[in-house]
């Protein structure tokens, strides 16, 4: 590793100390359904399929990501109820039998429950690969319905079929297909992949010759313009349906070669004129597939800088190749580089390549990056928060609030604090705007009371200025302890009616504490835990003690408690 690389790592680590807590930063992951790579599992059982997707979304939330690019079109088949294309064979094992549920609608519902932004990810020009196998036997597949639109391209012993972007009717077909998603489904965005030619060696000479009378463009510029026209019309059509839907494109990672950042070029090799898309504002965000590391050519940091410099006011999310070992080991550094270059977030390809992490990828929660040009109005909300205990023994609490007829597309955030100190880490649960209640289980309560309030967030993730009233919840039987110890300052021990000992602590600042059992000269650690500021309650293990010692790690204070 050379000195410049070590310096870059040092700078990234230094920057990360000051940039970890970002309130707005897109953190995305591609969930691949093509060839069942991430989902669904290899079963025709609908319940097993749904369970697997729930587990994926739970893990995405655990990793502190906030955006899902969910693949709904891959090899000329779709994962939604479409008038144009069929479901893939792998869902039910039949071309005639539709699944008992709508995969895209189910994914939207599950994403909403977790406050995850969800974009419908579509393969655009590539409409099949030979690995698609049995799907190509479906008479309704484009391969059989419109062979004149498709040009095959060989890759060794495999073949892919690509729609010819020079065919006007083929472009119009795709626009109708993708507009159908926005018309029928409450997705946050449309995510366009393979919006390009497969390469220079593409047999479209006949199409070009027929168009020459209408165009003075050479063949390369003509190809670029075919892609540009498609995107421009799709963007306008989409915004006419829903002006707050986000349109994004994921081009290959190199637009044009730069020193130490060279390879296959989007502009020259696959006819992606991304500079025009950004300048003419045909898109809301771009996710370049910068699928390399920091050491080798092409270098990730140089490409990140290039994309950000050319983006104008459009959002740049940097695609990271988590499937490559040399990239995966640098993921934290790449996140830091993205922040150093003022990118608007990162996206990981693909889910299974980050599913093995047992710790979050980020320290704090964050909302997706803002897009201030998107239209959104937050109605005036009268949020009156109330709660009822459904089961005091299990600390099962139902929070409920009044219905707002003008707020049906967004979220309510139940937060454990309110006012100026609010951060996304305070969000306990996210609830779709059409709901007016949520049930919460306060598991293993460690505080004598909890404060909750309600905020609202619109469908493009802008937070309301208004905050509901604040309610204080006393978990279960701890209410009795609260009455006994409203004003305690020093640590106290309370024995409940069941004989269990509870340690009560009232601290000014959150910190790590260690609790020891003292026997003569010996100190035995009972437990160590980070506790929040305020009044806390901790149940002691079922053991006989004579003396306890509490050590406050930050303040270096120690307190002894005699139990007899």
Describe this structure in a few short sentences.
This protein is of the alpha/beta class. The protein is 25% helix and 26% strand. The protein has 14 helices and 26 strands.
Using only C-alpha atoms, the radius of gyration works out to 28 Å
How widely separated are the two ends?
A: 62 Å
- Percentage of β-strand residues: 25-35%
Going across the major beta sheet, what is the strand order? 10-9-8-7-3-2-1-12-11
Helix- and strand-based class? alpha/beta
Strand segment tally: 26
Overall average residue pLDDT: 89
- Tally of individual helices: 14
Shape: elongated
Extract low-pLDDT stretches.
Answer: 6-19
Fraction in helix: 25-40%
Q: What is the makeup of the main sheet?
A: 9 strands, parallel
């Amino acid at each position: 590793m050379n000195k410049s690389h070590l310096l870059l790592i040092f700078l990234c680590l230094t920057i990360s100390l000051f940039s970890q807590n970002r309130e707005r930063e897109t953190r995305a992951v591609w969930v691949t359904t093509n060839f069942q790579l991430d989902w669904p599992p290899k079963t025709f059982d609908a319940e097993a399929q749904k369970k697997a997707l729930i587990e994926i979304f739970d893990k995405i939330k655990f990793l502190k990501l906030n955006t899902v690019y969910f693949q709904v079109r891959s090899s000329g088949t779709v994962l939604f109820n479409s008038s144009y294309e069929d479901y893939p064979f792998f869902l039910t094992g039949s071309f005639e039998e539709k699944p008992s549920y709508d995969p895209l609608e189910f994914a939207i519902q599950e994403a909403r429950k977790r406050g995850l932004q969800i974009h419908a990810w579509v393969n655009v020009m590539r409409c099949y690969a030979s690995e698609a196998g049995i799907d190509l036997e479906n008479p309704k597949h484009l391969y059989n319905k419109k062979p004149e639109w498709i040009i095959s391209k060989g890759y060794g012993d495999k073949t892919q079929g690509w729609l010819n972007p020079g065919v006007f009717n083929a472009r119009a077909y795709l626009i109708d297909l993708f507009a159908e998603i926005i018309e029928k489904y409450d997705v946050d965005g449309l995510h366009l992949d393979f919006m390009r030619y497969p390469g220079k060696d593409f047999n479209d000479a006949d199409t070009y010759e027929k168009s020459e009378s209408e165009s003075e463009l050479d063949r390369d510029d003509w190809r670029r313009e075919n892609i540009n026209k498609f995107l421009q019309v799709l963007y306008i059509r989409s915004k006419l349906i829903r002006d707050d839907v986000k349109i994004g494109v994921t081009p290959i990672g190199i637009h044009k070669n730069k020193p130490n950042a060279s390879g296959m070029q989007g502009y020259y090799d696959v006819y992606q004129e991304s500079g025009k898309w950004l300048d003419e504002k045909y898109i809301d965000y771009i996710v370049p597939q910068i699928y390399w590391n920091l050491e080798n050519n092409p270098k990730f940091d140089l490409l990140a800088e290039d994309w950000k410099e050319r983006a104008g006011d459009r959002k740049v999310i940097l695609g990271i190749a988590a499937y490559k070992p040399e990239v995966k080991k640098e993921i934290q550094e790449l996140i830091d580089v993205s922040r150093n270059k003022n990118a608007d977030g990162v996206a990981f390809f693909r889910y299974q390549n980050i599913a093995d992490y047992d710790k979050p990828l980020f320290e704090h929660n964050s909302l997706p990056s803002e897009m201030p040009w998107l239209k959104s109005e937050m109605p005036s909300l009268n949020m009156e928060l109330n709660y009822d205990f459904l089961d005091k023994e299990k600390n099962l609490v139902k929070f409920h609030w009044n219905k707002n007829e003008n707020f049906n597309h967004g979220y309510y955030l139940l937060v454990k604090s309110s006012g100026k100190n609010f951060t996304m880490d305070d969000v306990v649960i996210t609830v779709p705007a059409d709901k007016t209640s949520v049930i919460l289980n306060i598991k293993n309560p460690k505080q004598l009371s909890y404060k909750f309030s309600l905020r609202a967030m619109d469908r493009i993730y802008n937070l309301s200025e208004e905050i509901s009233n604040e309610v204080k919840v006393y978990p279960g039987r701890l209410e009795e302890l609260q009455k006994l110890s409203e004003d305690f300052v020093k640590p106290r021990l309370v024995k409940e009616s069941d004989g269990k000992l509870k340690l009560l602590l009232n601290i000014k600042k959150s910190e790590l504490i260690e609790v020891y059992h003292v026997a003569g000269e010996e100190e035995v650690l009972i437990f160590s835990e980070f506790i929040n500021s305020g009044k806390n309650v901790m149940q002691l293990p079922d053991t006989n003690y004579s003396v306890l010692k509490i050590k406050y790690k930050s303040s270096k204070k120690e307190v002894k408690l005699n139990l007899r």
